[in-house]
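We emphasize that the prediction below concerns an isolated chain of 247 residues; any contacts that depend on oligomerization or on bound cofactors are therefore not represented. The input was used exactly as deposited, without trimming of termini.
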Amino acid sequence: MKVIILAGGLGTRLRSVVSDVPKPLAPIQGTPYLAYMLNALYAKGLREFILSVGYKSAHFEQFIVSQKSRLPDLSLDLVVESEPLGTGGAMQFCFNTHLDNRYLIFNGDSYCDFPLADLLAAANQHNMAMVVAKVDNISRYGEVSLREDGCVHAFHEKQPETRPGWINAGVYCLPGDIFADYHGPDSFSFEQAIMPGLLAQGVATVAAAGPFIDMGIPEDYQRLAARPAHYFPVLPACSPAVADSNV
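Result of the prediction step, given as a token string:
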């Protein structure tokens, strides 16, 4: 089973704070954010990773060399988009270049700890599973409403109301043939083009085991930078921040 980390975004929301490197490589107490995420997943026993990147892709090459020197048996491949493909297009591109029966998918700018064994068991039962996180304010994210059996009932757009609820944590366990019936443009949103059509089949959910963080906005980035151990149960060994190579 391969792990795909979607790290191709432009990071426009964070440029007021971090402008010299891609968002997933933003330094957190001197260490790239992506190192925290990678080490947390490595500690769960995952070894085969694919970074799907686009913006300032050369920066990730330095990061890969650094991580491979620190994590034994780590497989970390780089897949570069020649143009923005959206979440769905990026995932499909990685599926086509790195064949497997099942994949774990992560957004490269958000994280929450989660029970891997439960996620895999849910995917075995329902074919697809995702992690949902409980937050105090859903207005930033939209909401996921659940059925009594824990599967997704519906995905709701952002609403101007401040209240707690479940959100999509951006962590999926997907079968390798999930794009078999898709025949649209190469660039598309997985959340908009694919997920609504899967609800009738049953999209299983697993609750996050730790707090959710979206480091793509300055406020949350500063919160994460101040308390990384609050969000990541496993902290990486010291990894130097990636320098700007003007790429």
